[in-house]
Specification:
This protein is mainly beta. The chain has a single domain, classed as Roll (SH3 type barrels), CATH 2.30.30.40. It contains one helix and nine strands; from the N terminus they run H-E-E-E-E-E-E-E-E-E. The protein is globular and about 30 Å long. The protein starts with a helix and ends with a strand. It comes from Scomber scombrus. Keywords: SH3 domain, Signal.
């Protein structure tokens, strides 16, 4: 690799990583199906629309199916937020995007994972890009 090309590559990588924004933590702990939070805990149905206030959250439309991956353990006086992704043929562009939403806007329909683990959240749980 030539020297100028290497510099351009490094500048490009720095530019990409500079768009990551550190956001406030929503909770110190979360409940997951495994230590990596890779298993779906449950399937829920959206009871109401929810518009994401920032990049940590996902938009949800009433009637959408939501895969729940983790549940934040709320601090005293804090809201209860879960993490998941939506599934709907009408909103294919949102499928696969994982983010937080208030637990109050969904109703759990089916639990897939009864055994859960409580693990600490990290700053990476709340980064935005």
């Amino acid at each position: 690799m030539s020297y100028p090309l290497g510099i351009l590559l490094c500048v490009g990588l720095l530019h990409q990583t500079s768009s990551i924004v550190r956001m406030d933590k929503l909770a110190d702990n979360k409940i997951c199906g495994d230590a990596e939070c890779s298993y779906v805990l449950s399937m829920a149905t959206a009871l109401d629309d929810f518009s994401a206030p920032d990049c940590r959250f996902i938009n949800i439309k009433k009637g959408q199916m939501v895969y729940v991956y983790s549940k934040l353990v709320p601090e005293e006086g804090a809201g209860v937020f879960w993490s998941g992704s939506v599934y709907s043929e009408r909103y294919v562009d949102q499928m696969g995007i994982v983010g937080y939403f208030p637990a109050t806007v969904v109703k759990e329909m089916q639990k897939f994972k009864e055994d859960t683990v409580k693990i600490p959240t990290t700053e990476m749980d709340f980064y935005c890009d």
